[in-house]
Amino acid sequence: MKVLITGGSGLIGKALSKKLLSEGHEVNILTRNVKNSSSVKEFHWDKTSVDPKAFEGVETIVHLAGAGIADKHWTNQRKKEIIDSRVDTLKLIQENYKGDSLKAIIGGSAIGFYGGDTGDIENNEDSEAGEDFMADCCEKWEKAEDDFAKKFELRVVKIRTGVVLDKNDGALPKIINPIKYYAGAAFGSGKQWMSWIHIDDMVEIFFQSIINPNIETIINGVAPYPVTNQEFTKTAAQVLGKKILLPNIPSFILKMILGEMSVVILGSSKVINKQISPIKFKFETLDKALQNLLG
Q: Which pLDDT belongs to residue 37?
């Protein structure tokens, strides 16, 4: 099978490309800076054009493109950039795709769909969308994927990812580096829920969604057992053989520094996978996941 990935240089995109190649599939990625330095085939795109050769023989598109949600402060311009980088990129592909080989779109999304801070409420795939910026972004992201699938009559899977744990990228290195030097601490009350998933399980969900034509649904990309921020910090310290010596970082300080974007850290998100998962999780519990990544 030939798969086209947008956002192929991101955390999930890189790991998914590696998995697909190891299983004998072909991978094309769209990039603004073609280097052709890896086993994947790179094709140029920008805000106005896409190399048409990128689509040749492609059966599945995996749409992961998008500006980092927590990379910069949430000004009005940055919010627009975050949404446009997810929505307009897919519209661009829709305008430029002229082939007939496509069969499916596997759409990225996020558990922010339910809102950035939902307290102790447990959300699943049937839960309604939230009402804040994160929810608005995810709704528009998923609508673009639905519109794309409808136009080309494709199978569509939408995967709402949680906090993806990888030892070299994403949130985990930022969390554990202070802990290594006894400077780690929980954020705010520490009672906010974190719905996490090991990178290997995340990739397997995407992989099975690509190769299994019977999967057509919404999937929460989270492990079965969410934890609080306090529990996460404590478990990470135990795995590293360190102690948490500092008090929790007060919420008001984080809000002062990060503004509205502080919801990414302080918001509580307790999300489960109600659907029959397309995979058997290798890492169901946080301690097992962190032992694998950090041990």
A: 67
DSSP string, the chain: -EEEEETTTSHHHHHHHHHHHHTT-EEEEEESS----SSSEEEEB-SS-B-GGGGTT--EEEE-----TTSS---HHHHHHHHHHHHHHHHHHHHH---S---EEEEEEEGGGG-S--TT-EE-TTSPP-SSHHHHHHHHHHHHHHHHHHHHT-EEEEEEE-EEE-SSSBHHHHHHHHHHTT----BTTS-SEE-EEEHHHHHHHHHHHHH-TT--SEEEE--S--EEHHHHHHHHHHHHT----SPPBPHHHHHHHHGGGGHHHH---EE---S--SS--S--SHHHHHHHHH-
**Can you tell me the distance from the alpha carbon of 91 to that of 68, in angstroms, rounded to the nearest whole number?**
19
- For the CA atoms of the chain, what is the radius of gyration? 19
User: Distance between CA atoms of 242 and 175, rounded to whole angstroms?
Assistant: 13
User: Contact at 8 Å (CB) between 86 and 76?
Assistant: no
How far, in Å, CA of 209 to CA of 193, rounded?
27
Q: What is the CATH number of domain 2-163+197-222+270-282?
A: 3.40.50.720
124-183 pLDDT, tens digit per residue, is 999 999 999 999 999 999 999 999 999 999 999 999 999 999 999 999 999 999 999 999
Q: Where are the domains of the chain?
A: 2-163+197-222+270-282
The model's pLDDT over 47-95, given as tens digits with 9 standing for 90+, comes to 899 999 999 999 999 999 999 999 999 999 999 999 999 999 999 999 9
- Overall pTM > 0.85: yes
Per-residue pLDDT reduced to its tens digit, 205-254? 999 999 999 999 999 999 999 999 999 999 999 999 999 999 999 999 99
